[in-house]
From TrEMBL:
Chief subcellular location: membrane
Organism name: Gordonia insulae
Gene expressing this chain: bacA
InterPro entries recorded: AAA+_ATPase (IPR003593), ABC1_TM_dom (IPR011527), ABC1_TM_sf (IPR036640), ABC_transporter-like_ATP-bd (IPR003439), ABC_transporter-like_CS (IPR017871), ABC_transporter_sub-D (IPR050835), P-loop_NTPase (IPR027417)
Lineage: Bacteria, Bacillati, Actinomycetota, Actinomycetes, Mycobacteriales
One Gene Ontology term of the molecular function aspect: ATP hydrolysis activity
UniProt protein name: Vitamin B12 transport ATP-binding protein BacA
Keyword Zinc: no
ABC transporter domain residues: 432-636
Length: 638
């Protein structure tokens, strides 16, 4: 029996084919990718978020090695489908031979049966070999794909987190005006849910990009590259198998090829038209679910307060309002999907019988064999599936697109927040100088105007003023957080200047991490931590350093404020700014803590914000904010 291809030399033919197709595809990927990254909005956004992974010095070799490996394996997958299609042709031709032989006469009939039988067993052997290769190829591809995705995700998470942290962007991006994107987020005026962008959107970008570009193991038509290669190679097979067709008296050659392209093109245009709103709906799904989750976390964080207030009803209503928005959006997605899937599914169903309908007349006339007929259907199916990949995956593209928009939005907000004004800060040895410092509210109201002062080692300044006069905001401005500032600020560099906020921040983890913050516990050492806990009147905690608790919930506010003093003693800064650092302890303890600080760190410049007159005695000067931008600086007791 004559086989459809020469199986004996197929290894070399296939290897050459894979090499050539891979080279062409890589070139195509680079050229098309370059233009998409330059010309389209989503391409530019994608490149802005991910570009560094593919061109950065540390990652590019590994990244491109993975891309090339996945590309080669995707094309290898397409080659396997081609081999399966020829194998199918041989199998059915062999069976047809046996069938004809059984109905035939004499020696010719027996010859046909023998040829058919040997063809059948040959097909079984061929199948055994190519199926084994197919399984191994699929597993290796799965592994490479997962490894690539993990690396990409790890890199992107680290990159986006570092970008978010740089220049206090995670704080200052709340002041960035993002136009429409930030409206209605329901949480804060700046960027919404950065946590979710960093966690789930990054996962989605790494995963979907890989799955949409390359095959993912199994079917070879589920990625852009294998889809395109499949279209080209199976169109060629279809080309050879298809005959002319006469429509309205005009004979059109190779009609099957034109038919499949036309069929899918029309179906795709309509599918895109139906599916387009999914991009926006997916974008909103991410935002609304994140809002809902954030509201749940808020209740968890504020559990004690909510319980004291008996605020369950308000919380429940608030949660349900957010949840209703999630569900409303979900229904919109469901209805859109019903139309989208309904259309795609109908088109796919129709495509099952389409090639048989077209080829049947030629088969009935005996111009093609049963093998040719089934291979036509197979090739049509492959071209159809590959072409339809774009139409069927439109919702995945929409999902990816939404995640890219959200990640790009985060990067945009981070960058913009770094361009916001910050007080002109210079490094200076062991002294503090403020020159013409202005502090305003976001609405433009003046809190402090033209503040100039100078502090030398050992000086201590207490900042006073009525509530809302701008005491905390002054510290925010000096720490480089508040963007509505002007003036100059000179102070000792880096962590020689320490800012302590009103409510001490307690990180997750064990107690030693909480006390050593912002230093690492290993840099400080347990002995030093124990000693300092004794000195700030927390002796009952010295044996609990290794305990993992939510320490911000376990320690009382007064204990947390003592932890803040412990940090000052550990860090031994040249300057420390403290915002109502003793508001939660009694006056006796306040006296002891300040006395301790002055005794242990006599040269440290101390700036305290305080409402209490009892703190005055530990300071040398008073800065009183008197409202409307004016202020008064005088010695203590003056
Ligand atoms: N993010 C913000 N957006 C708008 N206004 C703000 C913002 N943060 C603070 N303000 C306003 O700036 C003013 C100064 O606030 P600030 O917290 O500095 O006051 P304070 O003197 O420290 O008050 P208190 O003694 O009550 O702690 C207040 O009127 C406050 O409402």
């Amino acid at each position: 029996m004559e086989y459809s291809i020469d199986w004996a030399t197929e290894v070399w033919t296939s290897l050459r084919w894979i090499a050539i197709a891979s080279a062409i595809s890589l070139l195509g990927l680079l050229v098309v990718g370059f233009f998409i990254a330059r010309m389209t909005r989503w391409g530019r956004q994608f490149w802005r978020v991910n570009g560094e992974f593919f061109i950065g010095k540390d990652t590019r070799v590994v990244a491109w090695a993975f891309v090339i490996a996945l590309l080669v394996f995707s094309i290898f997958g397409v080659r396997m489908s081609i081999l399966f299609s020829y194998w199918g042709n041989d199998l059915f031709t062999a069976l047809q031979n046996v069938g004809s032989g059984l109905t035939g006469e004499g020696a010719a009939g027996r010859q046909l049966i023998d040829a058919g039988k040997s063809g059948f067993w040959h097909s079984m052997w061929v199948f055994g070999i190519i199926a084994t290769i197919h399984v191994v190829r699929t597993l290796v591809e799965l592994y490479i794909g997962a490894a690539f995705e993990i690396r990409w995700r790890r890199w992107l998470t680290s990159y986006a987190t570092a970008d978010w942290m740089r220049g206090n962007a995670f704080y200052r991006n709340r002041f960035v005006d993002l136009g429409d994107d930030s409206k209605d987020s329901g949480i804060q005026p700046g960027i919404d849910n950065p946590d979710q962008r960093i966690e789930s959107d990054i996962t989605n970008v790494a995963q979907s990009s890989r799955l949409l570009l390359f095959s993912s193991g199994g079917s070879s038509t589920n990625g852009v590259i294998p889809a395109l290669v499949t279209i080209v190679s199976f169109s060629q097979i279809l080309w050879n198998l298809s005959g002319p067709m006469t429509i309205w008296g005009v004979e059109i050659p190779r009609m099957m090829v034109w038919l499949v392209f036309m069929y899918v093109l029309i179906a795709t245009v309509i599918a895109f038209w139906i599916g387009h709103p999914l991009i926006r709906l997916n974008f909103w799904r991410e935002r609304l679910t994140a809002n809902f989750r954030y509201a749940l976390v808020r209740v968890r964080d504020g559990a004690e307060n909510v319980a004291f207030y008996r605020g369950e009803r308000v919380e429940h209503d608030g949660l349900m309002t957010r949840f209703s928005a999630v569900i409303a959006n979900y229904w919109q997605i469901v209805f859109r999907n019903l139309k989208f899937v309904g259309w795609n599914f109908s088109i796919t169903q129709l495509s099952v019988v389409f090639p048989y309908l077209v080829q049947a007349p030629r088969f009935f006339e005996g111009r093609i064999s049963l093998g040719d007929m089934t291979q036509t259907a197979d090739a049509f199916g492959n071209v159809h599936d590959a072409l339809s990949f774009f139409r069927n995956s439109y919702d995945d593209f929409a999902d990816l697109r939404a995640s890219i928009i959200r990640l790009d939005g985060l990067e945009d907000a981070d960058q913009k927040s770094r361009t916001l004004p910050v007080i002109a800060t210079t490094d200076r040895d062991r002294a503090v100088r403020l020159t013409d410092v202005d502090i305003n509210t976001p609405n433009g109201a003046e809190l402090i105007r033209d503040l100039s002062l100078s502090l030398d080692p050992g000086d201590a300044l207490v900042v006073k003023g009525r509530s809302g006069s701008g005491k905390t905001t002054l510290l925010r401005g000096l720490a480089g957080l508040w963007p509505f500032v002007d003036g100059e600020f000179a102070r000792p560099a880096g962590d020689r200047t320490l800012f302590l906020s009103q409510i001490p921040y307690i990180p997750l983890g064990d107690l030693r991490t909480a006390v050593a913050y912002p230093a690492l516990p290993d840099d400080v050492g347990d002995d030093a931590i124990r000693a300092v806990l004794e000195r700030v009147f927390l002796p009952h905690l010295v044996d609990r350093l290794a305990e993992e608790e939510d320490w911000s919930k376990v320690l009382s506010p007064g204990e947390q404020q003592r932890v803040a003093f412990a940090r000052v003693l550990l860090t031994r800064p040249d300057v420390v700014f403290m915002d109502e650092a003793t508001s939660a302890v009694d006056e006796g303890l306040e006296y002891s803590l300040y006395t301790l600080i002055r005794a242990e760190l006599p040269d440290t410049i101390l700036v305290s914000v305080s409402h209490r007159s009892t703190t005055d005695q530990h300071h040398t000067e008073v800065l009183e904010l008197t409202g409307g931008g004016s202020w008064d600086l005088r010695p203590v007791g003056g």
